[in-house]
Fold:
Amino acid sequence: MPISLPPYALSAPSFRFRHLASLAGRAPIGGAREVALACFVAARLAAECTTAMDDDPAGRAGRCAGAKAWLGTLVVPATVRGSVARCAELSVEGSPADVGKEVAGLLLAATSYLDAQSRAELDTLSAALRG
Structure:
């Protein structure tokens, strides 16, 4: 028998990229955690390209600038840093296909740091963006 929620109950929130966030929480302090966090931020920025961008370009540009400033504080491999920065920049005015290609590049750069579920999240995002 299905259980129905009371009329005042809220629906369960969905959380995108939960495996990347979980990996960042489980990883030891240092390179693996910072790479997972960088991938999570890049994925969140890139995911905005899959939805109708109703917000203003100044808001997207602000998020890009904030992400790039934060990225400067991390110790991550240069290939990962470059891919995350390009994902952030393309999330402002780039086409979804271009962002999808960069997410695929980020996946290749960070593969050795990510678990299977996290790689699958980035792969799914890349495929959705590339159409």
